[in-house]
Specification:
Shape: globular
Distance between the termini: 12 Å
Strand content: 25-35%
Structural class: alpha/beta
Helix content: 25-40%
Number of helices: 10
Number of strands: 15
């Protein structure tokens, strides 16, 4: 088969479409012929040499895909050859074929085409696990998501609105904020022109946000804690703004607040399976009913993955960028 390889770390030009050995499913795994994959920030870090795949996983980038099952390993039940699926991966989505643990498979949701389904596994799993399973966002609470126009952000807005939360977003342009508003966001904050701490306080009569989903890390750590409400929960899922920050413990104690930080890729298979099962139970019906949808900015041929990486680096996109076979 062919896959996007990374012979040497570097810029987008480091991505090389090359012939590689065909993968073979083992016990509890299936082989998927890939129709599409999606580009995530983690893929850019892997390309740059900063985020290696977990031991034993595919060396090729790609944390999610959609396609059809073409082979089934021993011990697999509930799936058959020819099933259209999408999947959460530890790597390997930028390829013609990929092996997937059965616990990380999802059926293509009702009303979603096979290519678009590739935009769903990573964002739904990340948002549901952090915002609902860990931070326990509840109806009536205020939820702030940074980077509201990103793949994660656009999904987070929709899921938070579906459970009855009040949603605030940050984004860097009027176009992006307008799109977030169309998805249901109530409070629109241009981080280039406004202080999100002041804006969220002003919009909540001084209370702050009950849950914050943050992709920036160190750069926003102190201000995120300032923006939290009493008993607020800050969920950190990225480090675009650095890895080391100063945490005001006194403020955290006074607010009886919590800070969590998670990554999805390196979790044990059992934990991923639990998250995927929860997504299928809670999110898939919302997608099937049309309450929640994948937001796709554009599709790019998989062999031209370098062009897709440049799109993410320029950060003018809204939603997901997909790689198609």
């Amino acid at each position: 088969m062919h896959a996007i390889t990374i012979p040497e770390a570097g810029g987008p030009e480091a991505l090389v479409w090359a012939e590689v050995p065909d993968p073979v499913p083992g016990e509890g795994e299936v082989l998927v012929e890939v129709a599409a994959s999606a580009v995530n920030r983690a893929d850019l870090l892997q390309r740059q040499g900063f985020y290696n795949p977990p031991p034993g996983s595919s060396p090729y980038p790609g944390l999610e895909c959609s396609g059809r099952i073409t082979d089934i390993g021993s011990g697999v039940s509930g799936w058959k050859i020819g099933d259209e699926v999408c999947a959460l991966l530890a790597g390997g989505g930028y390829a013609e074929q990929v092996v997937v643990p059965v616990g990380q498979l999802l059926p293509v949701p009702e009303g979603v085409d096979l290519v678009t389904a590739a935009a769903l596994p990573e964002v739904t799993s990340t948002v549901w696990s952090n915002v609902f399973m860990i931070s326990h966002l509840r109806p009536g609470e205020t939820f702030l998501v940074h980077g509201g126009s990103s793949g994660i952000g656009t999904m987070a807005i929709q899921l938070a609105k579906a459970v009855g939360a009040k949603v605030a977003v940050t984004a860097g342009s009027k176009e992006k904020l307008n799109f977030c508003g169309e998805l249901g966001a109530d409070i629109l904050i241009n981080y280039r022109e406004q202080d999100f701490v002041e804006e969220i306080k002003g919009a909540t009569d001084g209370a702050g946000a009950d849950v914050i989903l943050d992709n920036m890390g160190a750069k926003y750590l102190d201000r995120n804690v300032q923006a939290l409400a009493t008993s607020g929960r800050l969920a950190i899922i990225g480090m675009q703004g650095g890895v080391k920050g100063e945490l005001n413990i006194a403020m955290l104690l006074n607010k009886r607040a919590a800070v969590t930080a998670t990554s999805l890729r390196g979790r044990p298979a059992g934990e991923k399976a639990t998250i995927v099962a929860a997504v299928r139970e809670h999110v898939w019906p919302l997608i099937g009913a049309g309450q929640v949808r994948a937001i796709v900015d554009q599709t790019v041929p998989m062999r031209d993955a370098a062009a897709a990486h440049r799109v993410l680096e320029e950060s003018n996109h809204i939603g997901k960028v997909l790689l198609v076979r």
